[in-house]
Amino acid sequence: MKVLVWDGLPSPKLQVEEEEMTKCAFPLMAALALVLAAALVGCGEKAATQDGEGDLNVHQMVATVDGAPFDGVGFFCDWDYATTAFIAEEAVQGSAITMVVPTPAGPTTIQFEVGNQYKSAMYMPNPDDPSGDYWTVNGGSGSITIIEFASDKAKGSFEFIALNNSGDTVRVTDGRFYLQYEED
Known about the structure:
Elements: E1 2-5, E2 13-16, H1 21-40, E3 60-65, E4 68-78, E5 83-90, E6 96-102, E7 108-111, E8 120-124, E9 134-149, E10 153-163, E11 169-180
Antiparallel strand pairs: 1-2, 3-4, 3-11, 4-5, 5-6, 6-8, 7-9, 8-9, 9-10, 10-11
């Protein structure tokens, strides 16, 4: 069983029961590797653009982070407590964007809330060093607009401002995604 724990630090911790580790964590890592490989060959879709023209590739999330382009590969999955996580990692720099929201019944806009890890967004400039993570739980604002949500795919847009533990901010704008569901 996965449990998202917030212990007051800038990054939530994902705890996995030891017996569930091989059952859940390994397939999730394998699925992400498959997603990355599929994205690298283009999936036969149109190329994504930062200016809103063209369609996104399947498994793609794009945004502008403090003026710099973010082009990540990702998926969405069930989290816990009736929530859904939208996750993407950028291959070149290794940065990542994660958003956790209540599982939507269909198209909707959800505001991220300070102090609420179940309505939050995070930008991780270096996933290997969580001390620099920017999280809306620490402060900031933003939203995710889901324009299409089904059991196998989700499309939408997002933007947010988040803070790290030092009080520095990051501004994520013009975010768009087209993600497929992956079993956890």
